[in-house]
Amino acid sequence: MGINHDAVESLKADPTVAAIHRSLGFYYGNAAQDATMDAFYAPFVRPGDLVFDIGSHVGDRIGSFRRLGARVVAVEPQPLCIRAIKEIYAGDEDVILVEAVCGASEGTAQFYVNSENPTVSTASTEFVKAADGAQGWQDQVWDEQIEVPSLTLDDLVKSYGIPAFTKIDVEGFESSVLAGLSQIVPALSFEFTTIERSVALRCLDQVAALGFTAFNLSMGESMRMEFGEWRSRDEMAAHIRALPHEANAGDVYCLPSPAPWPGPAAA
């Protein structure tokens, strides 16, 4: 099982989901891009592994994790994205969709929808404030608010087991997600943006407190690590502080201890 390509094409042509057409077009249908993504994640994800995909959006990482043979618990609160994931992975018993926000506590959360650009919808009011008037973010508007269920990473671990890899991409809500994790896991990544470096630094403190000691990062959708060797918490913090505003976003990768990286680092 895996990606239902007919469902992808049907969604791309469906005007009722026009807001996610750009994401569907970018993430699905490019075999070379899929191969690059799979090669990037392969050191973290092996056949039979359990993976948590926190903030699944339209499910492109689900596709990669499934091609690598993993079982995936995907957490996503947005109705349009939930619909896409359900249709694209219909019938795949190794994809479990949890329709919720992952945060610091169980209950409910307010979720701020950017109806023109759902990829930056968020549960973080601070993220919305940080984007207001920031260079490159001037046209972004969060014009809808919905109440959604909330659960924690600890809740997911209790329900499904310890994941081999946890990917967190939740538009400024990453620190809240990590606040709901009380034990170290084999590997995780969290997204950061240059409009909210303080969130990234807080996340580094949180994962370091859990026991992570080795860090690397990949900028944007490059699917390349910036460093050939894993860095310390302090080195990663200094690098994030020094990034230009235009760098915009990336993902920090965290391990309990340094490990050889088989893929290429950025030139």
UniProtKB/TrEMBL annotation:
BP-aspect Gene Ontology terms: methylation
Isomerase as UniProt keyword: no
Superkingdom field: Bacteria
SUPFAM superfamilies per record: S-adenosyl-L-methionine-dependent methyltransferases (SSF53335)
Every Methyltransferase FkbM domain range: 53-196
Keywords annotated in UniProt: Methyltransferase, Transferase
InterPro entries: FkbM_mtfrase, SAM-dependent_MTase, SAM-dependent_MTases_sf
Gene Ontology terms, MF aspect: methyltransferase activity
Matches recorded under NCBIfam families: fkbM_fam
Record-given protein name: FkbM family methyltransferase
Protein's organism: Actinoplanes sandaracinus
Lineage, broadest ranks: Bacteria, Bacillati, Actinomycetota, Actinomycetes, Micromonosporales
